[in-house]
Amino acid sequence: MSVAVPTQPTNESSTTQPASAAADGAPSSRWLVIGGGVMGLQVARDLIQRGQNVTIAEAAPTFGGLTSAWQLGDVVWDRFYHVTLLSDTKLRDLLKDLDLESQMDWVETKTGFYSDGQLLSMSNTAEFLKFPPLNLIEKLRLGGTIFYASKIKNWRRLEKLSVEKWLRRWSGNGVFEKIWQPLLKAKLGEAYKQTSAAFIWAHTARMYKARRSGMKTEMFGYVPGGYATILEKWVQWLEDRGAKTLVSSPAKEVRKLEDGTFRVDFGDGRVETFDNVVSTIASPVIADTVPQLSDEEKKRHRGIRYLGVVCASMLMKKPISEYYVTNITDTWVPLTAVIEMSTIVNSESQLGGNHLVYLPKYLPDDHEGLNGSDEDYKEKCLSTLEKMYDHFSRDQVIDFKIARAKYVAALATIDYSTRLPNVVSSVPGFYALNSAHIVKGNLNVNETITLGEEKFVEEVWPDYQRRVAK
Ligand SMILES: Cc1cc2nc3c(=O)[nH]c(=O)nc-3n(C[C@H](O)[C@H](O)[C@H](O)COP(=O)(O)OP(=O)(O)OC[C@H]3O[C@@H](n4cnc5c(N)ncnc54)[C@H](O)[C@@H]3O)c2cc1C
């Protein structure tokens, strides 16, 4: 069901201020932003707003990274599922700047659980209270844990504790073993054992915010046309203000020369020179592309463990459930969750009357499953759906495609934030600013652009001003 949502109040920190190199007192110089995902686009936006000369280089043939789109049947939609929350204020500010926020469709969603071979609804307080796998005490402890997590401000304390220890303490062993452990294993595999309690804190806090109050309904939104629409407008916005946008341009090597400029090799004979470089790509790749970083910095970049994902997109003639997300606690199911995008995205106006389902499996970045064959994953998905849903049949599938990404989200291990490499590197003028620096939240677009802007304003720009003032 679509719901009218009040226009968001103007946010003072919306980055609509005019380009003002003079106001900042810093001259314009040539910047290269490496990576054309939302972090790279955000950094380019910050630089353009300060009157800088910006080039943004993306390795893939299109911009967007994890938010990029592809074609499924006759439908163009995101390769990986994306929704926006009412509380995603920075993202909504950006969409306002791009004249897209007023077009957003907001929808109430339902959440399902697949538990003991049964599909159960857990979308409101009454359903939560009836939820069969847990007794009343366990339900109270689960609800209490989520409420308590949503109120915690001191996330650094949680970073020191293992997620298992923390959840067993607050939810009890029964809830941990019936609910949390299967969910953690589905999302993180065995890596959950090294994960800190900050992971579950960030996750529950975001989901709690998604509900308008307490255990009530969730509101999720999307822009008609999906991220393809947002990316097209965003790249156009940058180009209109003078940014040079390069696709199919992987930065292979970044080297600082004696004259203080950076020589960037794009690997196909193209070499260009810049005054400053901001790399937004995954940390292990940053270590490989910038040989002049110190050994300690390279060690820190390479020490970050990521979660990757294999994610099928399935275009269907019929829906398979009424739930946007079906969480899975039965350990035989080889999927992290079932995501039915068409419970949010309008089937008639956006998906040609069809239904869109995503079937993700998150795996650690060194897991062999990330490189398995598409045929095997497809067969695994379809035979699993046949077992989970009596009415599911393969002849309802119009198109089926599999997307993979090795570096999706940095794993929130114990004391993670203390082991991060600095944004301002030991190579003057080279900045490493990527989503691995998210320490107070889980990975999502709002968090990525919020962090990008924060780190840019607090670290990158002041460092640049100091250097040019010398
Ligand atoms: C399955 C899934 C579901 C998600 N669901 C949601 C959701 O519902 N809501 C939400 O808000 N967020 C969601 N997200 C998260 C969101 O997609 C990310 O927060 C965001 O896209 C991260 O952007 P990024 O720029 O940091 O990284 P990326 O998107 O990974 O961008 C990095 C870019 O760098 C490029 N690159 C790599 N190496 C080089 C090189 N050498 N030279 C040049 N370019 C290079 C890559 O091609 C890529 O385009 C989801 C992500 C996934 C995977």
Automatic annotation (TrEMBL):
Domain Amine oxidase stretches: 40-395
SUPFAM superfamilies linked: FAD/NAD(P)-binding domain
InterPro entries listed in its UniProt record: Amino_oxidase (IPR002937), FAD/NAD-bd_sf (IPR036188), Zeta_carotene_desat/Oxidored (IPR050464)
Ranges annotated as biased composition (Polar residues): 1-17
Highest taxon in the source lineage: Bacteria
Region (Disordered): 1-24
UniProt name for this protein: NAD(P)/FAD-dependent oxidoreductase
Organism: Rhodopirellula halodulae
